[in-house]
């Protein structure tokens, strides 16, 4: 089957199939006499494997390792489990980082009056690189409160 058919059957775009071939993640497809790539059912099966691994967030390097283990009949399942556990650990680190960012931003949003005054703790936080700076709302000296009309 040609690259378009392999793409449709595997759920991997033709552009990504070419990329995987260029990087050596998958072997180069056989070529027809016309020069067009010719993919087998085995190639499509491997592309589906890659797509599912990508859907789980594995990096190309990890997918390469997984493919190697998948092809190796003498593999130990402990190796596969170790690789997957490492990926879980990395995902959990990323989740924690995202939760920390959301918490900090929530505190900043809650500290912002969102009124007509220019003082904004969100912008104040972005302009500084000091992690220990107090970002709570502080009254401005000499400021005169105005009513919204």
Automatic annotation (TrEMBL):
Keywords for the protein's UniProt record, in alphabetical order: Coiled coil, Cytoplasm, DNA-binding, Transcription, Transcription regulation
Keyword field contains Coiled coil: yes
PROSITE patterns on file: HTH_MERR_1, HTH_MERR_2
Molecular function via GO: copper ion binding; DNA binding; DNA-binding transcription factor activity
Biological process annotations from GO: positive regulation of DNA-templated transcription
Keyword Transcription applies: yes
UniProt name for this protein: Cu(I)-responsive transcriptional regulator
Entries under InterPro entries matching the protein: CueR, DNA-bd_dom_put_sf, MerR-type_HTH_dom, MerR_fam, Tscrpt_reg_MerR_DNA-bd
Native source species: Phyllobacterium myrsinacearum
């Amino acid at each position: 089957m040609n690259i378009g058919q392999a793409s449709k059957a595997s759920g991997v775009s033709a552009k990504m199939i070419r990329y995987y071939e260029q990087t050596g993640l998958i072997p180069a497809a056989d070529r027809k006499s016309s020069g067009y790539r010719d993919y087998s059912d085995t190639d499509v099966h491997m592309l589906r494997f890659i797509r599912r691994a990508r859907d789980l967030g594995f990096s190309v390097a990890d997918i390469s390792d997984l493919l190697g283990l998948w092809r190796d009949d003498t593999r130990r399942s402990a190796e596969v489990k170790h690789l997957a556990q490492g990926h879980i650990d990395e995902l959990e680190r990323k989740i924690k980082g995202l939760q920390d960012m959301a918490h900090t931003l929530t505190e900043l949003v809650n500290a912002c009056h969102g009124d007509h005054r220019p003082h904004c703790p969100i912008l104040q936080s972005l302009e500084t690189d000091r992690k220990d700076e107090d970002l709570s709302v502080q009254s401005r000296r000499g400021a005169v409160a105005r009513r919204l009309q």
